[in-house]
Amino acid sequence: xxxxxxxxxxxxxxxxxxxxxxxxxxxxxxxxxxxxxxxxxxxxxxxxxxxxxxxxxxxxxxxxxxxxxxxxxxxxxxxxxxxxxxxxxxxxxxxxxxxxxxxxxxxxxxxxxxxxxxxxxxxxxxxxxxxxxxxxxxxxxxxxxxxxxxxxxxxxxxxxxxxxxxxxxxxxxxxxxxxxx
Length: 181
Description:
Largest sheet: 4 strands, parallel
CATH superfamily: Uracil-DNA glycosylase-like domain
Strand order of the largest sheet: 3-2-6-7
Distance between the termini: 39 Å
Structural class: alpha/beta
Radius of gyration: 16 Å
Number of strands: 7
CATH topology: Uracil-DNA Glycosylase, subunit E
CATH class: Alpha Beta
């Protein structure tokens, strides 16, 4: 584990290996939202989607009627809705925060078979952007057994501030899929 005082230095170094977080999940989760790897800001704060301009929390809390509150409470309420959050990658080398900067030769996927064994009710997967989907299809899907390899999957527009091609309202409209049957 990187000491907090040097966390920012480590995640900004072009050759430092960065490590993701454990999943946010409660027993009985039915939906899994997957990103690629936490941003520099998220790693510094040790919170999923901590960048103030990332639209993830405004979108999901709005869709689920979760009152805006501190991170721990938002996470608790999100998982109480049966939604889990995780990243495809466990660790990698990535200077900065952009998905395009992930050095795929260094990328190690999270242990999805173990996750699905602990969360057997997961019935659908959503990807927060194209990179998360591509990494999952390349690094995870080939090693998944049935029934998890055949779970319904859908790519949603990235909530990252780097995805400026869509407005917040357009992203919210697409992300409504997580609350629809």
